[in-house]
């Protein structure tokens, strides 16, 4: 009993630790990556005894200290309580969504099976959508509590945008759920371990390419980053919903945004790129389709799978940062048109086509 | 049991805050909290699907639209005014309590809760029930929603 609780606590700690650290490192990657893209040098001011570490000292040590020691400003005519509550509401959903995302298969230690996932619930994907739908409140309440026209406009934009893209996101996932026939994320990942036509990994991207494009677009829109950063829109709204935030509270908004990037990357990996699956890696080692096997010990297999998951997640985080520094910002009416008049109908069509495909497939397999 | 009492107290307190707050936005936030706690109550009752849908639909979507509308309209204009017929309102509420009393008094709470069937609260069972024995009410509800949407579009078109 105690050991079980200890294992769950350890898993929760590990996941939170990894997500928060990855969020911090992404801050550095974003600064150095944007510098790389724009042919600049990027953060290089802070150093410890002459060691600047490619700006690592700057973003990982100097920036947090600066944020935490800055004055915490609350607008005098704003709402003190809600102004303080909002950053917590922004950070909370971004951190708890990771509880149902599997980061590995079963680890067997001393005869005890440990599922590498914090909480295995039978409605995993719905839980993620529920938490994502709560993440709007941080923005809306923060914007209102600031008592500032710019932040209020940002909050209204954010609310409308996130509610709109949630629908496209939910409908795009529906096709994937129909193919795998479960809401459980661990089961979805296991189902992607098969092979199509004997050699192609049965990843979601090959079964539902349209759903992948729709989901990724909607996920980027949900993180409110360029090209969907209308709620912030520096050139129009100064900084949008967090214009009246400083110090640690701003850091919480910022961390929440990066944690959302990590979550979006992990979800794309889980649903469309096989999660922790490595192509041709079974429980006991590699089985190549063109013959040849390489047997590996259990621990190595598990480590390879967890490593594969981490590499895929980091890759999709990098893709999101690349998008942010490549594309210009949409106009607000364009954002709404894309969400309601393009993504939504295509997602609906995808559901219908998938349903027909599944029924025809069942008919074909039932035929004697 | 302790968990239930804690959740019940939290739900009731946040529901009371919805009514007694002067500020509309505070009321809305308290309502979100109340809905969230009800969702957690569903989780403790072995109905995770209903609990999550409660968060997804009520706390996550409908209340966001509430807040959206409150923010678009000026909250100061929605300050509660002295409503002249509050006596009438309380009389109506008392009458309702009076009418409900016999039903409440005649209800006997079962000592032993009926055991939940296998797969209770699972998405599979919920889907089969919705599209099996309750398919007609389900479809009628969806038609009702469609009518509401069309009505909203018609009203919005008339304005411009």
Tell me about this structure.
The complex is a heterodimer of chains A (368) and B (160). With 368 residues, chain A is mainly α. Chain A has helices at residues 2-37, 56-69, 80-96, 124-134, 136-145, 149-180, 185-191, 204-207, 209-222, 234-237, 247-272, 298-324, 332-366; strands spanning 106-109, 112-115, 195-196, 200-201, 281-282, 285-287, 293-295. Chain A is globular and about 65 Å long. With 160 residues, chain B is an all-alpha fold. Chain B contains six helices and no strands. Chain B is globular, with a radius of gyration of 20 Å. The chains are: A mainly alpha (368), B mainly alpha (160). The interface between A and B is medium-sized, with 29 and 22 residues.
Ordered list of secondary-structure elements with their pairings:
The complex is a heterodimer of chains A (368) and B (160).
Chain A: H1 2-37, H2 56-69, H3 80-96, E1 106-109, E2 112-115, H4 124-134, H5 136-145, H6 149-180, H7 185-191, E3 195-196, E4 200-201, H8 204-207, H9 209-222, H10 234-237, H11 247-272, E5 281-282, E6 285-287, E7 293-295, H12 298-324, H13 332-366
Antiparallel strand pairs in A: 1-2, 3-4, 5-6, 6-7
Chain B: H1 2-20, H2 24-44, H3 48-72, H4 86-106, H5 123-131, H6 135-159
Helix pairs in contact in B: 1-2, 2-3
CATH class descriptor name of chain B: Mainly Alpha
Chain pair forming the biggest interface? A-B, 29 and 22 residues
**Helix fraction of chain B by DSSP (H/I, runs of at least 4):** over 70%
**Shape field of chain B:** globular
Taking all Cα atoms into account, the compactness measure Rg of chain B is 20 Å
Largest sheet descriptor of chain A = 3 strands, antiparallel
Order of helices and strands of chain B: HHHHHH
The total count of strands of chain A amounts to: 7
* Oligomeric form: heterodimer
| Rg from alpha-carbon coordinates of chain A | 22 Å
Count of distinct strands of chain B: 0
- Estimate nothing, just give the exact number of structural domains of chain B: 1
